[in-house]
TrEMBL record:
InterPro entries in UniProt: DUF3492, PelF-like
UniProt-listed SUPFAM superfamilies: UDP-Glycosyltransferase/glycogen phosphorylase
Organism: Actinomyces oris
Region Disordered: start-end pairs: 18-209, 224-246
Segments of skewed composition (Low complexity): 56-80, 87-104, 151-196
An example molecular function term from Gene Ontology annotations: transferase activity
Keyword Transferase among record annotations: yes
Keyword terms of this UniProt record: Transferase
Upper taxonomic lineage: Bacteria, Bacillati, Actinomycetota, Actinomycetes, Actinomycetales
Protein name: Glycosyl transferase family 1
Domain named DUF3492: residues: 281-554
Amino acid sequence: MSSSSSFRARLESLPLRYSAPAGGYAPMPSPDDAPGIGDRGEETGPRIKVGPDGYGVVVTTGGAGAPSGPSVAAPSAGSPTVPPTTEPVAEPVAEPATASASTPENPAAPIYGVVQAPAPAGYGLVQPRPKSPESASPQSPDVLDSPIFGAVSSAASGASASSPVEPAAPRSAASPAPDDVEAPDATAASAPSEPSEPSEPPAHGESQAPTAIAWESVASAASHASAIPLSQQTAQEEAEDEEAPAGAAELIRLPEEPEPEADDQVLPDGVPEDGVYADVDVAIVMESTYPYLKGGVSAVVHDIITGNPDLTFGIIHITWDSRSPLKDLYGMPDNIAWVKVLYLSMEEHQEDFLRARPRDLRMNRRQRRELSRRILGALLALAQDGQTEPLWDLISEGLSASRRYPVWAILGTREFMEAYHDMMPDLGMSMTDIFWCLRDFFSLAYAVLAEPVPRAQVYHAHTTGYAMLLGVNAAREHGTKVLLTEHNLYVRDTVNTLLERRLDLNVRLTDYRTFDVTGRERMWMAWWLEMGRLCYPYAYASTYLYPRAITEANELGGDSGRAIVIPNGIVTSEFDASYAARLAAIEEIKKEGADKHLWKLVYIARVVPIKGLLDMIDSVRLMVDRGLNIHLDVCGPTEHMPSYFEQCLTRIVEQGLESVITVRGTVKVRELLPEFDLFVLPSYNEGLPVVSLETMGAGIPTVSTDVGAVRSVVEDMIVTDDGQTWDPCGIIIEPGDPTVMADKVQEVISDVDLYERLSLNARGRVEAAYDLVKVNASYNKIYRQGGAGEQAGARADQGGA
């Protein structure tokens, strides 16, 4: 943007009438929006990007080709380097202590799926890699306290400047280290190793032995996580079939210091103060959103609950950490019994996950090797044959609340990393980077699955991601059922966000095998896609907003045989006054003439790239050049992505449209509907936008892009039960074409008779197919098919409440 004072003055003089959020239509703020559409300038620091339509926040760090995080560490000054070995060593080899447990920050390749703060719809929440651990306060030089292995003996205490003592392990967000031993109680110390000469590369065409695992590289990552080098975690060799250890009595343990009393924290709204969670008919499982964030999905859930007062509900709210919004913004109705909040951040569940160690498995080496191969075999069975039970059996044994052992501790063993090296495809990644990805996956699975969940007859998940994963596990634990609702195709949108593609592009279940992506991207693609395949089969029913979504979900592992279309809905009577005003306005237009009337267009959405406002501004310029008498009002939050908002303001000024476009910001749209003649939706991604239904309820025609359910809402023929049919109420176009948008708007506003037909159809269509009372009745029916309401009926038969 030009920095000239005159240009800035023009920007500041724009007819911007912005009001603070006051129950307006658009969702609450999120830091940024999905990439791939609009401005994507170079950035050197961390970038926060909102996933599809508020689907969660994805953070990338550094440039695309930079080396990645903790796996790339510069040696400390004066510290000797250890050359990589060519094969795993059988005997423990001591390594020199380094000056610091932490490694310097390095530019990192994109780390996809890292959540910093949940967006309104809250989808796609995932876990970051840890930052370099900071040194903790000094302890006794003879004992180090590891969050993975307990307390172990350190290197020789007589350290000098050339052989400094390893600092104590910090209590940080660490992960298990690969472990090749059983009881780390031996003292390890050695002189600096001399670097070996690099081996000559084999001649062209010569066969090479299989690549050995560079254990020092994996040790670097693991030591970065646990702050203790493998050289200080070694011990005596154990026999293959030695009896599994009974416990960790051999470990030296520091006396525990009393923890300071925590300040009394205010519980999130709706969480029971006594910690008692009553059984409910339906537990709504949300990734962020309701009831602590405003947005389209939250509004739909609130309507479902208030529209089914005969059922009791609980809310399982999955969010990032305890700093997330936890204030009820909706005024939860009385039939919500409780809210249960689960956090994904490892900072919120350090005690179990971060302190788990291989010894807690109570397994010897042979058993650990068998478990490792069983885990990897279950993953391959899912990916290759679609078999879900082997993996779910492991989840029940080692991850769920009823687990018998902490399966995530296996990641800290050499047996697991060797099995991974032998069994899994080569992704062109170092074992260090693989370790970090696997550590993220284990920690996320733990966060979602390990905590006990209150009992419900039906767990109603609103995404196929973590919400559905939790819902399936809870239903298996309690012997009840799980229902899935897809507002958008979560897996498709998350993968497209990961790859910075347009969100309307299709994704198939096997694409992670064939796409030209990095190894890290391939692992994250597999994580999301196979999570969907793991969960889809367990829903007794799946609801979608429009028929085409069922076909698209089939390509991701969905089951069309259990799919039902239940659209969003509105209370049409709430728009009677606006509709009456529209009919009167049509009569005035007829008298005035289409060419004399000032046609007021309205854009109602967040000002973010995915909603296509820049395209709409270009369309307005084209229409003005054609001599059309129009004005565009922009309604919706402008603060979600300030850089994009500024870009839009710049475009308005550059196009000379200051008098033609008014930016209103967040307003109460329903009160303004009588002012507008035509609703324009230039979006690149939608589910079933409630704003489309609301403008239709007011009799306002539309020109909209073909995204999500928009075509079925606006254009597809509707046939009612009594045989009445309703034709289109607008025109559908492909996204990303400002010229076509201008053409179709001109077509509608140049023909008053066409405009009147579209207006009448708009009201008729929403009354026939999108009435909220009918929508809520559909949900009540499907809830009862899953067993909801049975407990209340049994209590009534017994004379209870």
